Amino acid sequence: MGEAKEEVVRGQLLILFLVTFIDMIGFGIVIPFLTYLVEDLAVEANITSIGLWVGLVMTAYPMAQFLSAPLWGGLSDRIGRRPILMIGLVGNTVCFALFGLAPTLFIAIVARFLAGFFNGNIAVARAYIGDISRPEQMASRMGLIGASFGLGFTFGPFIGGELSAPAERWDVFQGTLLETYPYLLPCLVASALSIVSLLLARTRLPESLPKEARQGASGLDWVGTMRSSFEGLFQSMRAPAIGQLLWVTMLYSFGFTIMHAVFILFTEMAPSSGGLGFTEAQNGRIFAVIGLTGIVVQGGLIRPLSKRFSSRSMVPFAVIITGIGLGAIPYASVEYAWLWLLPTCVIISTGSGIFQPTSSSLLASYAQRDGRELGGVMGAMESASAFARILGPVTGGLVWTLTVNETGWFSYHTVFQLCAVIMLVTFLVSLRLPQEPVPQESD
């Protein structure tokens, strides 16, 4: 009987993994061409501050995700996890197509905001795993969500880049709607993948939350949930070791997401202006390499590294190598673009792949030592990262707009130098982190 139940649970986890994996492919698909789409719409509207608009479009997604996550979480406690996951997939199907058909920058921002709003249900996927797992199974099973992110971020950008502007590459698409809307095809593929996920969830994914548990759930209180989130963050920020690590996490995420807004602005810029003249497909391949490196690091390197080095020592190392990689990006030349960018992006992805799990592990150690609830502390870390992800792209786009025309000391290098400086500050703060507690024999 027990074996049969475990078989059912394994089936549920497999379907949940496929649903989130396909969903993340759809998210990754837009990365290589988002900057190009915004640039095209800005030119049509005679807007010159392209960098700022790229930042605004990128920020719309994490902002909506941050605002909607408590809403979806509370609603899933009342009506179940499965309906919320399906609502998110329906929303994704519509929003991807809307983004590909966006005639103005305002519609593009609305489409990305709505996509982020419906994708705030990643926390619901985690709650689903919590419903069907024992405490000792949680860590390994939560890794499924991380694996879906990594794989989706590898395949998604590659597909998005290869399918962008199809009329320029294949004659069969000339004179069609896909020539008028050059980024509609990858968006339609993302919508189709969301439909596949929806069908899987509809037919193969059972509800994980029993009816009796749903009946005991409290009513929706979005304002209360948001207030509690802020209070938890500020309270955790005041704790000596935990607060320092939260600052490290927030600064790291801020510097990293500044790069998100400007990387393709640099690579697609004309070589005569200092850029590389990359196409959407070339950028998609670069991001695929970044995703693949992250999978290798988190799937193969973290375990042996964590046995040899403490999380406390790996956090500063991850920060500094990320900073070196970010600062090196704009020094790529057209002649040696791939020879420079590939190792640079591998360095950045390696740093990120080390930082994410080791910072979480170190935070858990501090929380256990101080007798704090792990869920609340991890929630504070997620809130700190969310703020950074909201501010980072706008900051990057604004700095790019102000400096790209090379006025005085400033140039298109400046924003990447800013990333490196932020990482240097983060590195110095991380050096002051206390040593992690030594595990007891019983642990």
Helix and strand topology:
Layout: H1 2-29, H2 31-44, H3 50-79, H4 81-100, H5 105-118, H6 122-131, H7 138-163, H8 177-180, H9 184-204, H10 211-215, H11 222-238, H12 240-267, H13 280-308, H14 311-328, H15 337-370, H16 374-403, H17 414-430
Helix pairs in contact: 1-7, 1-9, 2-3, 2-13, 3-4, 3-5, 3-6, 3-12, 3-16, 4-5, 4-6, 4-9, 6-7, 7-13, 11-16, 12-15, 12-16, 12-17, 13-15, 14-15, 14-17, 15-16
Observed structural traits:
2 domains, 443 residues, Growth Hormone, Chain: A, mainly alpha
Kindly summarize this structure in a few lines.
Helix content is 78%, strand content 0%. By secondary structure, it is mostly helical. The longest helix has 34 residues, at 337-370.
Structure description:
This protein has 443 residues and is an all-alpha fold. The protein has 2 domains: 1-220, MFS general substrate transporter like domains (Growth Hormone, Chain: A, Up-down Bundle); 223-435, Growth Hormone, Chain: A. Helix content is 78%, strand content 0%. The protein has helices spanning 2-29, 31-44, 50-79, 81-100, 105-118, 122-131, 138-163, 177-180, 184-204, 211-215, 222-238, 240-267, 280-308, 311-328, 337-370, 374-403, 414-430. Helix 7 (138-163) packs antiparallel against helix 13. It is globular, with a radius of gyration of 22 Å.
